[in-house]
Amino acid sequence: MTKLYLVRHGETVDNVAQILQGQGHGQLNERGLEQAREVRDKMVGEQIDVFVASDLRRAIDTCRIIAEPHGLPIETTVLLRERDWGSFTGRFIPTLKDVEWPDDIETLEQMKSRAQNFITYLKFTYPDKTVLAVGHGLINKAIQSVYFHRPMNEIQKMGNAEVRVLVL
At what angle do helices 30-43 and 57-67 cross, to 10 degrees? Predict the structure, then answer.
């Protein structure tokens, strides 16, 4: 079985500003850097075989900090990217409350398909290994939705730099 430490990236400048980052790179703020260091310090004694991150900078930077003491490279994958918010990307979240959604937003079904592909990829590529993967709030929620066979709205939101453990 593959053990997965599923991590959400540290807090970003846009998280605080309530900007919908989507598949933009984002930048960790000082608190986000500290959150990543806290996870690093908690995970330093864990045997981790593989580090994987979304190919977006905020996830890579978080993963790089966590992986430091392990001396292992970071693999990146588009499967862990955040939801594609299309033309909503970069918008101030509170102004979107009653706005009609455009057709260019990635659907929940598409996200859950990526999540299933990620789980399958890990199980077949890293059997009997321990993987730490840094993703984003919604894709991590989709991964857990697929894993637990529960609707996404029943999966509790992950905080920045939160770690959850799944055995695949």
Answer: 40
**Can you list the alpha helix ranges (DSSP code H) found in the chain?**
13-17, 30-43, 57-67, 108-125, 137-148
* Strands laid side by side in the 163-167 sheet: 74-77, 50-54, 130-135, 3-8, 163-167
Give burial (CB, 10 Å; 0-12/13-18/19+) of 162. Answer: middle
Distance, CA of 45 to chain centre: 22
Asked whether 51 and 67 are in contact (CB, 8 A), the reply is yes
Asked whether 104 and 87 are in contact (CB, 8 A), the reply is yes
Largest CA distance in the chain: 48
Q: Using an 8 Å Cβ cutoff, are 85 and 99 in contact?
A: no
Report the catalytic residues: 9, 82
Q: What is the pLDDT along the chain (168 residues), one digit of tens a residue?
A: 999 999 999 999 999 999 999 999 999 999 999 999 999 999 999 999 999 999 999 999 999 999 999 999 999 999 999 999 999 999 999 999 999 999 999 999 999 999 999 999 999 999 999 999 999 999 999 999 999 999 999 999 999 999 999 999
**Exposure of 143 in the CB half-sphere (CA atoms within 13 A):** 31
